[in-house]
Amino acid sequence: QYVYSNVTQSLNFFGNSDPFELIEEYGSPLYVYNERIFRERCREMKNLVSYPNFSVNYSVKANSNLQLLKIALEEGLNVDAMSPGEIFLELQAGFKPEQILFISNNVSADEMKFAIDRKITVSVDSLSQLELFGKINPGGSVAIRFNPGVGAGHHKKVITGGKETKFGVDPNFIPQVKEILKKYNLKLVGINQHIGSLFMEGSAYIQGIKSILSLAENFEDLEFVDLGGGFGIPYHKQENEARLDLSSLGKELDSILNEWVKSYGKNITFKIEPGRYISAECGVLLGTVHAIKINYDNKYVGTDLGFNVLQRPIMYDSHHDIEIYRNSDLPSTKKEPVIIVGNICESGDIIAKNRLLPEIFEGDLLGVLDAGAYGHVMSSNYNNRLRPAEVLIKENGDHILIRRRDTLEDLIRCYNV
Ligand code: LLP
């Protein structure tokens, strides 16, 4: 067997199987998750600081497969939720209402009630939604998302703090916040922020934390401050990209938090909301090469990895390392630039542009690395393609199906004809 790039091999990612066996059993394309890696990332986040009242709220938007949620629960994580659907899944997985923080954004009264009725803390994102909360639940406890004026992220579409985003309450409105809290006799139990997704060094995150902590001083009796997520992972593993230095970030955080708590005078809980860091690296997306062709000097590798399956490259020009698996050991020494494309009817359907790789053949399998976050959750039925199955490689190396592939019948389930 031939494997180009040894990232998965060195991790023993596929356990007792190989990519060909998995595709044979579950079809192509296929999301494969490794339980050991997922658990390791949960633990790294839990051990980020030594500050005692610390909660890791897994941001399930990154990957809400029910089986992974159950594992996160076993690992002692809490969760955030962005929608009633996420709340529903989290409750199904066994999380208790007090382990869930609903970070709402432009929700309806019914959606807010959905959380309140289930005794889940709601964080609101604007003065008008605070007012709505007050009307629905006067005398209740609420949290508020602030926009600390700082943003950071791998692409402008995922920067969620600062002047150019829809998120969070502008701290200039704190007097109005206080008026609304008073008007409805609300207790502000927590404040939160999220400055954006994917930082590889902590300076903007730390700056955001300093801002939210200084905002927190405007409110007495907070029970928690949620510092947000955004912890990055190295997507360029084949080029040995360095990992985020969690140990020095953790130390810096510890000293800031301990210092701040002393002056606040109350032992509050700090939360973080990592999504990508926890699930990205546990996932590989497998696909099959169906056609190779040259079009006006460009070499195209045609696969079943369309943007219906993985949206990140078309949405954000994101890079994912690609591995090649072949059921023979055909030598392939020289590298050539190729454009790896999917099977969707749009010319933007490109998973990797001008990637320098050894020669690829029809019948090869490709592995798209670090696909466990914002992968399957963002997949769609565009072109009426079937969303892939999800498989888990257990700690003993065996594999189990944790979500079946769509069927053709699924495509007509919602029609009323
Ligand atoms: N908390 C809040 C309020 C968020 O909006 C997000 C992500 C997170 C936590 C988790 O962020 P993370 O730790 O995963 O960076 N689809 C994009 C990323 C969108 C992130 C949206 N919000 C991508 O594939 O890069």
TrEMBL record:
UniProt cross-references to Pfam families, sorted A to Z: Orn_Arg_deC_N (PF02784), Orn_DAP_Arg_deC (PF00278)
Assembly and oligomerization: Homodimer.
GO molecular function, one term: diaminopimelate decarboxylase activity
Assigned keywords, A-Z: Amino-acid biosynthesis, Decarboxylase, Lyase, Lysine biosynthesis, Pyridoxal phosphate
Protein name per the record: Diaminopimelate decarboxylase
Cofactor: pyridoxal 5'-phosphate
Pathway connected to this protein: Amino-acid biosynthesis; L-lysine biosynthesis via DAP pathway; L-lysine from DL-2,6-diaminopimelate: step 1/1
All copies of domain Orn/DAP/Arg decarboxylase 2 C-terminal, residue ranges: 31-372
GO terms under biological process: lysine biosynthetic process via diaminopimelate
Catalytic residues in the record: C345
N6-(pyridoxal phosphate)lysine PTM sites in chain numbering: K61
